[in-house]
């Protein structure tokens, strides 16, 4: 065994772990990174990157199919295997940035083994025993596969295996109507597969229902079957002929099955009990500073049991680096964290939805709305299906919901405003280039101020006085 003593040991080479390693080593800390699988984690290899690449292929196919703007559409010659090649090329392009070579070049000691705690102060990884001043668990999450009777006898895909599939599914069944399920539903439908989404409750159930309806209507219009309140009870069949039976008596048959019902934190192999680290059903039990029940050990990203987004893991890295390296108090917050579903149109959210905000703020809440159909750029590009809602309390945005083109980009303005405690006037005062979709945000801010300006009797009286009496 080789003994290693270091300032910081990071377990997991995904988004959060890599961000933390790069920052810490460049700030002068001695850093060991332990990764037993692929550098870049789920996001690069199985999640954000490949899914957006496949969505781009589907979007290209759909543009060819529909035509428009004076250009005739026609049936695309979609090559599923070639689309998967595009996915692989995208991953390969990004891989060097997350590679062992790059991080060793920065000065990080990378150990390519799985780690497990052997005491409250030691981690074993292969032939190495690592003692560190601080440990950070950044092991991410994996697909959660529920124990549906019959599933163990049927071949199925998850987001980790789907990318190896080279033959286009004839009819893809997807259990789970959340972001992963719906993104893959639209991508596969546009590439020529029949698709059925089977959701036990409501599709996009965590999002604003008014905005979620915009997305669901678009997918149904493209031929995606979305069955809601359809709790899977039994799965039967074999390769190429799979049937999902639901508790209400419905059945759905397809050629392939994708499980997309959620994710679970990767903590099982860490031997956390020996380390004195408590866990919950969601992940590692942490306080506001992301420190576990062992003061030497922190958890970030999906492993911390909160919001499961790549950008949250990166944000968490910034939170703990302040505490671990600089000895300064630092707490994580969630009110300013945005997220997006990259269907076409997109759906994005930051802070509470309208219903959540009404429950919290009651009569103090004002909801400003603006429809994409009133935006000149949306009209010019044929992207008029969409809506933005901004939840405002005492002149400050507390949440925003956007369904429409580039919603994932547009939500950034509201995330910045909420993060910095800005007022609605900060967005209203912004000068957006014309014509851009960015004006949707400015017009939403304007919708908040319009009643105060145009329906205020005192404003009218002041204007009248100025026009009558001032030279």
Automatic annotation (TrEMBL):
InterPro entries: FAD/NAD-bd_sf, FAD/NAD-binding_dom, FAD/NAD-linked_Rdtase_dimer_sf, Pyr_nuc-diS_OxRdtase, Pyr_nucl-diS_OxRdtase_dimer, Pyr_OxRdtase_I_AS. FAD binds at residues 52, 115, 139-141, 302. Disulfide bonds join 43-48. Binds 1 FAD per subunit. Residues 7-316 form the FAD/NAD(P)-binding domain. Residues 337-444 form the Pyridine nucleotide-disulphide oxidoreductase dimerisation domain. Its cofactor is FAD. NAD(+) binds at residues 176-183, 199, 262. Keywords: Disulfide bond, FAD, Flavoprotein, NAD, NADP, Nucleotide-binding, Oxidoreductase, Redox-active center. GO terms for molecular function: flavin adenine dinucleotide binding; NAD(P)H dehydrogenase (quinone) activity; oxidoreductase activity, acting on a sulfur group of donors, NAD(P) as acceptor. Pfam families: Pyr_redox_2 (PF07992), Pyr_redox_dim (PF02852). Belongs to the class-I pyridine nucleotide-disulfide oxidoreductase family. PANTHER family: MERCURIC REDUCTASE. This is Dihydrolipoamide dehydrogenase. It comes from Actibacterium mucosum KCTC 23349.
């Amino acid at each position: 065994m080789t003994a290693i003593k270091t300032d910081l040991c990071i377990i997991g080479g995904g988004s959060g772990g890599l961000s933390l390693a790069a920052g810490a080593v460049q700030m002068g800390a001695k850093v060991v990174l332990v990764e037993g699988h692929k550098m870049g984690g789920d996001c690069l290899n199985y999640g954000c990157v490949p899914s957006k690449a496949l969505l781009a292929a589907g979007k290209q196919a759909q543009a060819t199919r529909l035509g428009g703007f004076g250009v005739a559409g026609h049936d695309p010659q979609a090559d599923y295997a070639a689309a998967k090649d595009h996915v692989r090329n995208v991953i390969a392009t990004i891989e060097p940035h997350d590679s062992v070579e790059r991080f060793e070049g920065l000065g990080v000691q990378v150990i390519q083994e799985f780690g497990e705690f052997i005491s409250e102060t030691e981690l074993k990884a292969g032939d190495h025993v690592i003692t560190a001043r601080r440990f950070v668990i950044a092991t991410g999450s994996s697909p959660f596969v529920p124990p549906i009777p019959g599933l163990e006898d049927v071949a199925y895909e998850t987001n980790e295996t789907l990318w190896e599939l080279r033959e286009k599914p004839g009819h893809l069944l997807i259990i789970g109507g959340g972001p992963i399920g719906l993104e893959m539903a639209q991508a596969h439908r546009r590439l020529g597969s029949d698709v059925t989404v089977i959701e036990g409750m409501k599709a996009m159930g965590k999002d604003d229902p008014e905005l979620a309806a915009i997305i669901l209507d678009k997918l149904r219009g493209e031929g995606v079957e979305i069955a809601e309140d359809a709790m899977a009870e039994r799965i039967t069949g074999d390769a190429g002929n799979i049937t999902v039976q639901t508790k209400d008596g419905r059945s759905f048959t397809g050629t392939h099955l994708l499980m997309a019902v959620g994710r679970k934190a990767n903590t099982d192999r860490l031997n956390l009990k020996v380390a004195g680290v408590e866990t919950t059903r969601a992940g590692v039990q942490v306080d506001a500073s992301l420190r576990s029940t062992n003061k030497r050990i922190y958890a970030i990203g999906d492993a911390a049991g909160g919001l499961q987004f790549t950008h949250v893991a990166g944000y968490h890295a910034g939170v703990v680096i302040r505490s671990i390296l600089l000895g300064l108090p630092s707490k994580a917050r969630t009110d300013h964290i945005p997220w997006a579903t990259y269907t076409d149109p997109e759906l994005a959210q930051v802070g509470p939805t309208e219903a959540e905000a009404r429950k919290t703020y009651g009569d103090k809440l004002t909801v400003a709305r603006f429809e994409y159909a009133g935006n000149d750029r949306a009209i010019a590009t044929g992207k008029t299906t969409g809506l933005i809602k901004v939840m405002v309390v005492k002149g400050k945005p507390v949440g925003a919901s956007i369904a429409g083109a580039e919603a994932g980009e547009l939500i950034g303005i509201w995330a910045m405003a909420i993060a910095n405690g800005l007022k609605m006037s900060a967005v209203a005062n912004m000068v957006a280039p014309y014509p851009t979709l960015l004006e949707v945000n400015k017009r939403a801010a304007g919708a908040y101020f319009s009643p105060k300006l145009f329906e205020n009797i005192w404003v009218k009286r002041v204007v009248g006085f100025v026009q009558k009496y001032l030279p």
